[in-house]
């Protein structure tokens, strides 16, 4: 129950959202979601909804729906598509779909050994993607951010040549980020108190948000593919190990926004020293560098082929990393009773070898394992989850608040 | 925004709740909350609200408020108290307070070495409390439940002699409980698949709910005393160790209701065998039996006096238990970014000795400890938290849905 009458302006906002989401829900049923090219969903592809369909589904009058649809088309959010020729009497109505050449989201990612950018359109299509692999640790934060700004400018230019308008950017960083975009600490990058929007020169006036990479990857995973479990732990394996915790279908950020530091959960309290100052953190057993060292392999790209070739040292290294990961993850399942564990980052292509050890630890250590099986599976988006989740967050903000976008383009 | 017009019946339900909570909020401001005798809150004690005050606070008409208040008085939920004599013109209005002789909640607790019952009235007063200390492990579940039913009958008789009506019971159990009240597993009691409502013969028709003891204790703690942090970890130290996780002011139960199994988080993956079948669980380091064994002490009641006397073996045992608890708790804080850790059960009277070790591990292991201090403190309710939380849950259900209670007494 609301405390008073709904004002006209907020009623229009509400109804714009209702109408847009009707078209969006068709787009997602037809398989166009925030997913990479790997993932093609199957299922019935119904015709896109007409104005009359939307009026029927929302209980709004046809006149109201038509006026709202006109505004959404003018703002570049919806497109009318011609009906398929049909036998019988009457002119079939045009269908409404999310616009593939309206506003788009720019995702950026700063990680220890790569930088990435991608552009996702309103209908979930990936329209641009670039990854630059290089160790970012030697560079000063301002140098790294200047290169990210360059990636962003390239991505924006590519998007604009395709007729898109980049509506905003979200930046994924492997560290602790304040709501204002200050990176308090990114231990594996060696960053402390780095102002990311400032260092990006706010990308020429584009709205910029900054968030933890595991959080954005978990959001990417949540919205990719078919509806999965409502509660899961997304584990991001990189040089550091982060986690995004999804509870009841929503990202859980913690009281101060700093949840998910799985990499610093202790596996052995007196284990090897960690960069964070503590001992025996999971990162020291299952982080990328620990795996490469134990496997005697130079780069992460070599791990999968050498595991496939059955090299015993590599297999042993993965089993050991998986067991330590399983100990920490079993603790999380004991505490949070999540339904699934998603292996992301470098863990995604290695899930075939890490998964069995993780499952074994869960089976042995989780008190409820006998009644409540926990699914352990690779991420659908793999290494792209964070940058795709970042771009998707920008796009979903438009889905959720189309009136704000219309107000921006009207001025 | 609601989907349609609010029906008259649900409008009345809603408004009954509004009116009752106005009186309840005065009662809680004046210090009458679900707290034990230990805790006397200070602060201004305003006069209880009159019908006119409630009309002003809720924007309902005076006539509507008066009709609702009459119903709440008739149902035994509100009581009118006479105004203090006042100088000047006009007859001062009567004040409305929660009834101290209307419906009450019965809390029951089954733990490894004690059984407990308590009755809490609508205004939060504890009207009856009984604890029977005895090892429950030798008894069969049906024998234990028969004794609990006896405790419940005594409590109910005591309450009725004071003019109260017991509205329902909630039972705290140290184990995994299904929504129907089946105890799937209580490892330290040795229970598997025990139907608690059935074993209690449903207490002569009383509505009975069953819940995990740490969950109920966390709820007790959440509603006891002044408004505390919105996110905290309540740790229940008994023979087993459980946790209740409060996030954003609400108990987090997990996807299937089985969250909070802190006692089975691994401290050392290859440590001593646990009753659950795994190795190195926290319970093996910081459970009641591990502490007593290390301290060379026979019963938990002896721990505090001997720690106060400075016995070095006891102090070392507590420091060691605190350190292991701190390792596990630091992992939770890294994951969930909670603002406080509440030491409950046998940990509450020992917090002076356990707290420093827990704080040291948090300080060393939590990545954000430098910016986000985490409060570590004893439970306000001590060993009574679960049974008080159970009784309080029954009472709060009446606060939240007074119309349901009125419908019950009307038939």
UniProtKB/TrEMBL annotation, chains A, B:
Pfam families to which the protein is assigned, alphabetical: ROK (PF00480)
Transmembrane segments: none
Domain of life of the organism encoding this protein: Bacteria
Entry's family note: Belongs to the ROK (NagC/XylR) family.
Protein name in UniProt: ROK family protein
Species this chain originates from: Phytohabitans kaempferiae
């Amino acid at each position: 129950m609301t405390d008073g009458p709904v004002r006209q302006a907020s009623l229009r906002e509400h109804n714009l959202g209702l109408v847009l989401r009707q078209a969006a829900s068709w787009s997602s049923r037809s398989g166009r979601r925030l997913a990479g090219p790997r993932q093609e969903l199957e299922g019935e592809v119904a015709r896109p909804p007409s104005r009359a369909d939307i009026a029927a589904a929302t209980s709004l009058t046809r006149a109201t729906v038509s006026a709202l649809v006109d505004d959404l088309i003018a703002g570049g959010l919806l497109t009318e598509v011609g009906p398929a020729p049909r036998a019988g009497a009457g002119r079939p109505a045009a269908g409404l779909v999310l616009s593939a050449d309206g506003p788009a989201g720019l995702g950026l990612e700063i990680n220890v050994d790569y930088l990435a950018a991608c552009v996702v359109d309103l209908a979930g299509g990936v329209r641009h993607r670039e990854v630059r692999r290089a160790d970012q640790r030697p560079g000063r934060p301002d140098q790294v951010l200047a290169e990210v700004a360059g990636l962003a400018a390239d991505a924006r230019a590519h998007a604009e040549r395709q007729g898109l308008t980049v509506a905003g950017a979200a930046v994924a960083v492997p560290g602790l980020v304040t709501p204002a975009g200050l990176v308090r600490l990114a231990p594996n990058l060696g960053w402390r108190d780095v102002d990311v929007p400032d260092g990006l020169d706010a990308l020429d006036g584009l709205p910029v948000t900054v968030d933890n990479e595991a959080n954005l990857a978990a959001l990417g995973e949540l919205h990719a593919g078919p509806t999965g479990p409502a509660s899961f732990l997304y584990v991001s394996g990189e040089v550091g190990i982060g986690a995004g915790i999804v509870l009841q279908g929503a990202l859980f950020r913690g009281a101060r926004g700093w949840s998910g530091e799985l990499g610093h959960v202790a596996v052995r309290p007196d284990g090897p020293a960690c960069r964070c100052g503590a001992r025996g953190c999971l990162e020291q057993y299952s982080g990328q560098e620990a795996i490469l060292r134990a496997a005697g392999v130079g780069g992460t790209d070599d791990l999968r082929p050498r595991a496939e070739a059955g090299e015993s040292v590599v297999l042993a290294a993965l089993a050991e990393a998986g067991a330590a990961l399983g100990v920490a993850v079993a603790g999380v399942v004991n505490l949070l009773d999540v339904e699934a564990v998603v292996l992301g980052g470098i863990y995604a292509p290695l899930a075939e070898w890490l998964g069995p050890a993780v499952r074994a630890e869960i089976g042995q250590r989780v008190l409820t394992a006998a009644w409540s099986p926990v699914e352990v599976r690779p991420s659908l988006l793999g290494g792209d989850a964070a940058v795709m989740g970042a771009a998707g967050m920008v796009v979903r903000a438009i889905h959720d608040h189309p009136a704000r976008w219309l107000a921006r383009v009207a001025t």
